[in-house]
Prior knowledge:
The structure holds two protein chains of two kinds.
Chain A: H1 6-19, E1 23-25, H2 39-42, E2 51-60, E3 76-85, H3 91-101, E4 111-115, E5 118-120, E6 125-134, E7 137-148, E8 151-152, E9 158-163, H4 164-172, E10 181-183, E11 186-187, H5 188-206, H6 209-228, H7 232-251, H8 257-290
Parallel strand pairs in A: 1-2
Antiparallel strand pairs in A: 2-3, 3-9, 4-6, 5-6, 6-7, 7-8, 7-9, 10-11
Chain B: E1 3-10, H1 15-33, E2 41-43, E3 46-52, E4 60-66, H2 74-80, E5 89-91, E6 94-99, H3 104-118, E7 137-144, E8 147-148, E9 158-159, E10 161-163, E11 172-174, H4 181-186, H5 194-206, H6 218-221, E12 229-234, H7 244-255, E13 258-261, E14 264-269, H8 274-309, H9 323-336, H10 341-349, H11 357-361, H12 368-376, H13 381-389, H14 404-423, H15 437-449, H16 464-474, H17 479-486, H18 493-506, H19 510-526, H20 544-555, H21 563-571, H22 574-583, H23 591-608
Parallel strand pairs in B: 7-9
Antiparallel strand pairs in B: 1-3, 1-7, 2-3, 4-6, 5-6, 7-8, 10-11, 12-14, 13-14
Amino acid sequence: xAQRSYQEIILALEExxxxxxxxxxxxxxxxxxxxxxxPATFLRSLGPKPWKTAYLEPVLRxxxxxxxxxxxxxxxxxxxxxxxxPQPANVLDLYLDxxxxxxxxxxxxxxxxVEDDWEQPTVGAWGLGWEVWCDGMEITQFTYFQQLxxxxxxxxxxxxxxxxxxxxxxxxxxxxxFDLEWADGMTWRDVYQENERQWSHYNFEEASVELxxxxxDDYEAxxxxxxxxxxxxxxxxxxxxxxxxxxxxxxxxxISVTERAAYIGRVRNLVRAVAQLYLEQQQEDHAEAxx
Amino acid sequence: MPKLLFExxxxxxxxxxxxxxxxxxxxxxRAHLGAxxxxxxxxxxxxxxxxxxxxxxxxxxxxxxxxxLREKAAPGFAKRYGVAVDDLTLRDGFLGLEVPGRPIAxxxxxxxxxxxxxxxxGKSMTWGAGFRFARPVRWxxxxxxGEPISVALEGVPSGGLSYGHRTSHxxxxxxxxxxxxxEALRAAGxxxxxxVRYEQIVAGLDALGPWRDPSGKLDEVVYLVEAARVQEASxxxxxxxxxxxxxVTTMQAHQRYFPLGGNRFAFVANGxxxxxxxxxxxxxxxxxxxxxxFTFRRDVEVGIEGLADxxxxxxxxAGAGTYAEKTERLVSLVGELGxxxxxxxxxxxxxxxxxxxxxxEFTELQGYIGAEYARRAGESESVAAAIEEQYxxxxxxxxxxxxxxxxxxxxxxxxxxxxxxxxxxxxxxxSRDPFGLRRAAIGLNRLAIDGNVPVQxxxxxxxxxxxEERLExxxxxxxxxxxxxxxSAVGGLGEVAxxxxxxxxxxxxxxxxxVYEAYDRANRLVGKRDDAAEHLDESLxxxxxxxxxxxxxxxxxxxxxxxxxxxxxxxxxxxxxxxxFDDVMVIAEDDRVRGNRVRLLLDVRDELGRxxxxxxxxxx
Lengths: 291, 620
């Protein structure tokens, strides 16, 4: 079988996880720094309702940009995110099968599950799991969430986050992300290098500090207002927007050590309030459904 | 007797969890099965053991109410156990219930479940099974004399099946008996015995020539594989320009590789095609070394002085200023501690590497990286060595600096750390010691004692008591001698230690006995009195012995640093003290005479006490 292109790997994952009963979603419509922050993971993991989803997520981390010059670090890259809630007993086997489905031969490679616990104190979240190694390279982060937004979980989800660039490098046997074949005759370089260059330039040099600082304040106020209105889903979008504004300010070097802690605290407070509200509504709905 | 095999099948356990389970399983087996495991088979996906158990559980007698309460309490007791009052038996005046032993197979489902529930982990999780474990438990295999046993643990399948190697033999494996366990799993690509895996890995490494494991990764790696395969690999020689420990740390900390010298290394695989797996691991290490190289070059371009210039932006301890301010203190402290020009130069550059990008990634290499950068900037070897040695000793038994400049800088660093932290009111409590003050105090003592750094006790400020208390555990003499020496007149930290040792060594000698007795008698009689005169008044003396004693004490100039001659000197006063007690009534009627004599004896005690507080030392 010919090696799969990047887009064929994505398609194979979509097909595989759809066959496992996952709801296929498209990337979220506002910036996230991790597939975990997409509400399809973060919010849907809360509460008593089962949920299975899979989606591609472009993650934006302004501080990690390298103007498209470093072959392993980017301000924009792709994760493929799977949530299985509650976690099924054969979840690791399902994961290994997904690797086979995208053309990664688990008999030729040394696949290992190496302890790596996940903790994100800024959003009151932690879980236990592994980084999955393929011949010593981390290709996936696997986590059993235990707490999100400071709240205990009713059903424990398994989160599978594929680092798609790394996976594709193994599948295509390419030494750098630049050289990955995106589609027939098109490399990653052709598709995204100029994007990296321009956005790195923007993130580090041109992003308006005054504008993003103001936006942070506005988004925060809007989020609080929406929580008061009992609308956790729109409120959550404004948490994400705050978070991204903060990341941009950080990349611009506009945040001092003391301010940093204050900003993080403000985001954490928003996350907790939204998560709490979302959970209350979920539990009410669930109670009605059971009645 | 029946033989049982019990295996807890897990998703990949962390090495620490494997070790925790290995420590607890023997006791859990004794508690719930009445016998210790014959062996333990511990690995990432299974915790297993064979154990020989009794055929029946022991007969039991459950004690009930006293016979006198037969009417009142016995019916309730009997009802609780579902029997009639007539079924109760009498022992030593109490009614009770005979519970005959049961066949072991009947109780195993519940008892094996108790073993699983009984394991405690430092970090544990839930996944919906109703009990916590380090990672999800996915199967339980229990076989008693060839018969599968199901375990009463909700949500976990159990019986006679185990599972083979995760990728090479993913299917179920039937376990025929405890005796057949190892064979069945070995045929399924798994080596369950940790000791065997360990030997396999060591043999594999030995076959590749000399290997190193400075961070002790082997103990972890043995729990990362079920089918250990040691392989050799290499990286591009151009990376050898990186500081050697940066390369070794990259290999060990992130990848758990074993350096083989030069550009070769070994790794332990758990499966896959050796050539493919080797290429993959080499690729990963190259990527990491490339990152390190990039960072290293940027640091070297800035240079150690440029890095030192950035210290004003880095906070040392909240409330205690920046590393630039700490650097100024270090330079002056090093001078006070006898450091020469090179030591002061080293102090100027000591903290520069904290501003480097490489130390941000390899914090454990602080000092070492600074020294490398200093060498590259043309600093002398003694300056570089002192920078490298500033954190020595970094553990209770760790090596001391080899150079005098390093010793002075290391002592200055710890002294400043301790006085700063104590000055801010932080001190270690119980097991909490976030600033590493215990380690710093022990290190400072060792530098003073074995490194001969002249650390003055007075310079310890608010940390003095804490630092000196550490001597009690550090010196090989009873604590009373350390306490006695701490109360002496010596000014140096190292001298306290030497005095404690000298006191202990002299304890059985005649001179010591004489001085001890003189001190002890004086101290017992007047130590707690409050009527001593402020100054000795010779005009109030009535006996020659008083005058003689005052003169003898006045002449003594005891230098505890020269202990042997000081002790001999002090001993010459002892007979005079003895005669004084024979000849003179200390507690005289006349207030002024009495106050003067009390004063004289206090002077005796205090002068002899320059050699230490003898009252701390128990009499023989």
